[in-house]
Amino acid sequence: MAFADLTNDFVFRRIFATHPEILRGLLNDLLDRQGEQAIEGIEYLPSEQLPLVAGAKLSILDVRCRDRAGTTFVVEMQLIHHPGFVNRVVYNACKAYVGQLKAGTWYDTLTDVVAISICDFEIWPDATQQARGLEPVPMLSRWNMSERVSGNAGLLQVQYAFLELPKLPERKPDTGASQWAWLFVHAPELTEVPADLPPPHREALALANKATFTLEELDAYEKVRDEIQQVLAIAEARWVEGKAEGKAEGKAEGELEGRRVTLLRLLARAGIALADEDRALIQACTSEATLDRWIDNVFGAKAAADVLS
How far is it, in rounded angstroms, from Cα 250 to Cα 183? Predict the structure, then answer.
């Protein structure tokens, strides 16, 4: 057997955007929902996505769903740590919360929103936390507002969970949340479904079996894979080059190029076509603030003009 990469946009959506029981298992594990708190049923909510066989996906938000209690879950897979990533997660979660309120309805009709981000990068590196005199943030972290003195976590209307895949321990885990992280990292290395894998994880891995893909699906998967590898390789090369130069101007240019690469990557994932003059404008831009603004503009944009404004 040969298994596809679960962090690939196409594969992630193939598994979690069309199989609610698998998505429910992922949510229960990542949010530690057990017993009476377990999510028993979900319904998918509309989101801006291309069909599964269309190659690179349109939306950064991979899956939206709601459980029977009315809680909305926004689940995403992220491979690039672009500027303002955490701010964007907070923005989208809050937008999902206030977007429930319709004209003439009361605030008590609002229900909770939980944003889950699975990241192939570290948001809070241990070394950075240590340098700041702070406790390390675990691989799976959950966040909500709490009262500072008492610790009362009474404001649960908008919650967050982050799974930082690079923090996965070397040993094979035996708990649900860590096993999901292990699959996201190691699925392409497997040649068979491990016998000790629990049902939701087994079903997810089975759907990643490339032998079950149609030729059209394999083509879509490979297009996304090649695009990801190319962009990440360019970004890494530019970063290394800028660092090796050891000069302020070299570092600055490396950071600018990283922003340009990130912007082009996000535009490609959003399905936004660029004219030659648009690409020339991006490559000629030497303002970090402008590039950061354009990156933020991608989310929700329909055309290049919406981004490069």
Answer: 38
* Any domain includes 3: no
Q: Does 162 fall in a domain?
A: yes
Number of domains in the chain: 2
The range of the structural domain enclosing residue 255 comes to: 215-307
Token pair, residue 148, equals 């500072």
Same domain, 229 and 181: no
Does the residue 2 lie in any domain?
Answer: no
Nearest to 117 by CA among 83, 145, 93, 153: 93
pLDDT band at 128 (very low <50, low <70, confident <90, very high): confident
The identity of residue 233, as a single letter, is A
Report phi then psi at 109, rounded to 5.
-85, -10
- Does residue 204 share a domain with residue 105? yes
**Rounded to whole angstroms, what are the CA distances from 78 to 66, 120, 252?**
21, 6, 25
> What's the pLDDT tens digit per position in 14-72?
999 999 999 999 999 999 998 888 998 899 987 654 333 333 333 344 689 999 989 99
Considering 153, 178, 212, which residue would you say is the last residue of a domain? 212
Mean pLDDT value across the chain: 85
> Residue 265's pLDDT is what?
77
CA angle 16, 216, 210 (to 5 degrees): 60
Q: Which of 212, 244, 279 is the last residue of a domain?
A: 212
To 5 degrees, how large is the angle CA 254–CA 60–CA 278?
50
Does a structural domain hold residue 126?
Answer: yes
Q: Do residues 180 and 49 share a domain?
A: yes
Assigned token pair, 226: 């090649």
pTM, two decimal places: 0.74
Say yes or no: 141 and 180 in one domain.
yes
Quick: pLDDT tens for 58-112. 334 468 999 998 999 999 998 877 778 899 899 989 999 999 888 788 899 999 9
Cβ neighbors of 7 (< 8 A, separation 6 or more) are 77, 79, 118, 120, 165, 184
